[in-house]
Amino acid sequence: MKLKLSESDSSKLAGESGPAVQMAMSILVRMAEIRGAKEFLSIVSSHIDSALYIGDSTLDYAERFVALGAQVCVPTTLNVAGVDHHGWDRWAVPSDWAHKARRQMLAYKNMGCNPTWTCAPYQTEERPGFGDQIAWGESSAIVFANSVLGARSERYPDLLDICAAIAGRVPAIGLHLTENRVGQVLVRLDSIDKKLLLSDEFYPVLGHHIGKLAGSKVVVFGEAAVVPSEDQLKALGAAMASSGAVALFHWVGLTPEAKTLEHALDGRTPETIIKVALRDLLEARNELSSSSSDRLDMIVLGSPHFSLNELKALVPLTLGKKCHQSVRFLITTGRGVKLLAEEIGLLETLLSFGAEVTVDTCILTTPMLPSEIKSIMTNSAKYAYYTPGLLKREVVFGSMEECVESAVCGKVTKNHRLWLF
Amino acid sequence: MTSIGDRVRLRSERRLRGVVVIPGSVTGKLMASKEPLSFWGGYDIESGEIIDRKHQLSGKIARGSILAIPGTKGSSTTTAVLLEALIKGTAPLAILTRGVDSFLALALVVAEEMYSKSIPLIALGSEEFLSLESGSNVRLEEDGTILVETLRQ
Questions:
Q1: Domain range holding B99?
Q2: B52 band by pLDDT with thresholds 50, 70 and 90
């Protein structure tokens, strides 16, 4: 069936709402045709990844919209940017890069977006509600909004998220539609020890493993003996959206579209069943490290951006300890979370331990790391996945406890405690 | 639009038919993988090298070849990376996918809109996609016809 435009869609496309809306709508219509959409639907929120500076073309694109008078027409948050707006010069960011990245940040602010500059906007006030139609960018935020909040977003790539926010309309396809939200791949965790299921380290490892197998399918985690925390689900989703393209998962008995297994699968038989064995997880965990050396230059925590609860969990681990002088300890988070942490006095302990905090960006999206940093340790599967290729540095994956222990010793120290049976 | 004026004659050709997502005609060598790729963190804008160290094609230079991947995965910044590579001249000559990949399509739609510049993007059926082999010479035509030179054993 051919794409049907409403009267107001057609008028936007014809330029009756101005040239910026026209440009946004014409890109959306091309994409709707390519995807075989039948119609458009309205959104109530957008989260923009396009503000990330990649090069001249992404800056051109932003400034073209601004020159055409673009304004977003729904509440819109901004993802990580190309620099820490106020703190970039403490790092190795070339000033030409910083200048262009800041110009691109300014362009999106000028379009009326909320300068949250975080990949985890849902950790502060911006949480869409159940069933809300939204157009979100940032793979880890999309999977969280769809799965944990039950909002409805397709995977919006950079360049398209802003079109949706300007036009307020998106093609009615994919995860916007009820029929595409039904579980396809069932993951069974029956053989996994409860001690592992309860640990934070389990979730990024599980996500890395499942993402590779599930691709872009809707994943259902069957009845499990535990109720994962929001941060654990955040880590799980981000990992599946790095090794794969998972944009929606259900956790039976916990996430809103999975009251029961039957509910999550809509009474159907899953296309595939994955029975997770401990050896799969050990393999996935090994894969997340590119090096087996104990050299350590920097610990980086916070991809997706660290939440207030993660900061709270980190504080007692660092209390009374000192980060080794040869190791830098970096936490990447959003302005909102940093402010809350300051207010309740969390930052003081972390800073006296030797930690540094960067906001607005992360190590993957800004060239901030000095050249002497060659080996990084992290508890994030997303950082671990992208570091070797993007940053050309070695990476070691470990739990938050192991990261702190290693920072104190000045070399990678893994106790493997969790994984020994 | 890239195009080759003189039609190179390919030895023992196989003819495939794909769905044209972004039209164009070009001749080149195929670089094929069965694994999806995130261009962000997987494609170097400066050189066109595949830099996802967990990917089959890691270390290969895709610039100047016809890249065949099932589709994209991972980051939503894949589109911006392909757009920037296209402007810098480090993009592949064309991309073949299994089914329509909307991330790649978007980058090329925006490249057309902004710079009147693009590369062909053709979607293939599963079986035809799986028949593609690295190293074959291929010719893409405007209507989605793909002529593949059969590799000699």
A1: 13-149
A2: very high
B90, part of any domain: yes
The Cα–Cα gap between A51 and B37 comes to 22
Q: What CATH number corresponds to the domain at position B129?
A: 3.50.30.10
Mutant choice from A13, A49, A57 vs B, greatest count of B C-beta within 10 A: A57
Amino acid at B3: S
CA distances from A374 to A248, A394, A400 (A): 35, 6, 20
Superfamily classification of domain A289-409: Aconitase, domain 3 (3.30.499.10)
Q: Any chain B CB within 8 A of the CB of A147?
A: no
- Residue B7 domain flag: no
Residue B2 lies in a domain: no
The minimum CA-CA distance between A159 and chain B, rounded to whole Å, is 7
**Mean per-residue pLDDT, A358-387:** 96
pLDDT band at A421 (very low <50, low <70, confident <90, very high): low
Q: In this structure, how many other beta carbons lie within 10 angstroms of the beta carbon of residue A253?
A: 16
Calpha distance B133→B149 (Å, rounded): 10
For chain B, which residues lie within 8 Å of any Cβ of chain A, measuring from their own Cβ?
21, 36, 38, 40-42, 45, 51-54, 58, 71-81, 83-84, 86-88, 100, 102-103, 105-107, 109-110, 113-115
Note the pLDDT tens digit of each residue in A213-228: 999 999 999 988 899 9
ipTM above 0.85, yes or no: yes
Integer angstrom CA distances of residue A289 from A378, A379, B14: 9, 11, 42
Question: What domain count does chain B have?
Answer: 1
* Chain B: residue whose CA lies nearest to A214: B73
**Separation CA B4–CA B28 (nearest Å):** 10
Q: Which residues of B touch A31 (CB under 8 A)?
A: 102, 105-106, 109
Contact flag A290-B53 (C-beta cutoff 8 Å): yes
Task: For B57-72, write each residue's pLDDT tens digit.
Answer: 999 999 999 999 999 9
Q: Which of A27, A138, A244 has the CB atom closest to B113's CB atom?
A: A27
Q: How does pLDDT run across A334-371, given as a tens digit for each residue?
A: 999 999 999 999 999 999 999 999 999 999 999 999 99
Residues of B marked as catalytic: 75
Chain A neighbors of B95, CB-CB under 8 A: none
Q: Evaluate whether residue B17 is within a structural domain.
A: yes
